[in-house]
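1st attempt posting a full record on here, be nice pls
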Amino acid sequence: MNIFIVILSSIIIVGLILILLVATYNHFQDYIIRINEADVNIDSVLRKRFDLLNKSIGIIKSNINTEDEILDIIVKLRSKKLNNFELDRSLYDAINEFHTIKEKYPELQNCKELIKIEINLMESESEIVGLRKYYNDIITDYNKLVKTCPSNIIAIIKGYKAKDYFDGNNLDNEKGTVKL
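the predicted structure (as tokens):
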């Protein structure tokens, strides 16, 4: 009878440990899916901003007479493969250049196409701010899982690492991407 109780209690303990491990693994998978979803949404808005700025180059050149390179940041980005952190930083610089050009040439102030682009850029800024906050909130929870016990055991086994926040800092290598 004692052996039966020991075996039964051992099976129950192993079962509970397995349930805990599976639940923790599934919790990680939920966060990874949410991080990837947020990353795709951010990517979509960043591509929209890139397209708006790219479209503005032709409009600017058709309205002013200059041999200067207009929005050369955007021209250079066409051939580069960047992660969202790097693209966001580059687009921020390009938007600043866009505003500088618009102020420099008075004939651009009343250009309806550029006004529409500027409005869309402002709307996309509020979108990207919200998406950054959502992304960073998910990253906070994910990083807690990676660093706290007992979930850090699964993180070590699966090779999950803490992720960087989407704040424009730490723009080296391929930060901001999540591998499954």
